[in-house]
Input
Amino acid sequence: MIEFLKSLGIAQPFGIGALSVVFTFVVAWFFTQRFIPRVREFAIKVGWTDKPNERRLNKTPVPNAGGLAIFAGFICSVVVAWTLRPIVLEGVQIQVLAILLGASLLVLTGFIDDQFGLSPLFRIVVQTVVSALLMVNGMRIDLSTLPLLHSLPVAWLGPLSVAVTWLWIVGITNAMNLLDGVDGVVGGIGFITSMVMVAVAAQFPDRAAAVVLLAGLGGAALGFLRYNFNPSRIFMGDAGAYLFGYTLAAVSLLGTLKVSAGASLVAPLLILGLPILDTARVVFSRLSRRISPTTPEKNHIHHLLYARYGARGASIIIWIMVLALSVVGMWAQHVPLQVIVAISFFIAVCLGYVALSRVQALNREEKPQAGGA
Output
């Protein structure tokens, strides 16, 4: 068993480093799953719900404050992990704190937008602020090492790197939010991409902090999915979607330091390929018809799949597509085959368990109603 774990790249399977990652995942999963029912109950009392309309697929009001529970579970796990294994490098400490501060601002912004509504311009401004927060702390895409761009004047490379980094962070943040239209889609994508990026980051010695953050995010996603797979009992709202999109985009830059960030984004580009391609397709489609990119329509991939296969079918198909792209991303990053197989199996088992648990819970809820009838 120990030899098998070592073959996966875990140098010390029972060392404090490996155990802290596992513990971070479990803590995030446990606390998020425990927080959800209480957040849901309070949200119903105070009216934090998405009411049915022509844009939404739900037929009855559904609480939309799940992002708060996800964030709470995520933060709890990171605090526990940091206590067990403090981050030694001061520079990485600051970068992790910058990521967590940015995530906090976006969760707050998303929550306010969920309940009261905010203009697209205001949301972009906040996303630009948190992007700047990352960049001033050394997390940016370094284009100077890319073969096609290293010959450009230095005066051009700086601003171009800033622009590409901004587009990466803001683009991924909004791409995840735009995909949040069918039960289980973004929660599943968040879990899959977090776990796959854990496998990728674990191959590099300078990305221990990234592994911990991703393990916490993945655990929180799995805990939330228990209540979000169709029929959903709670939505994550913009708060949760922003948390997943922003954190995944930011963590992909963590630990690159003096290494080419452009090269390190090969795997994340493929892993997050579906949200990126779907958002690009929809935005270009709207612009070609002279429609604002922020205009709500039902032409995202989850809408198209929902119309043909229903909510559960759409979610599962998207999960499979994301996992397939993630396998290609891991292969492109030269992740060992046994690691690819192991993490793919783990993801499939976890998602299968969560989906089955939700269906069984629904059956238990319906039995008393049938007996009463």
Observations:
- Residues 337-372 form the longest helix (36 residues).
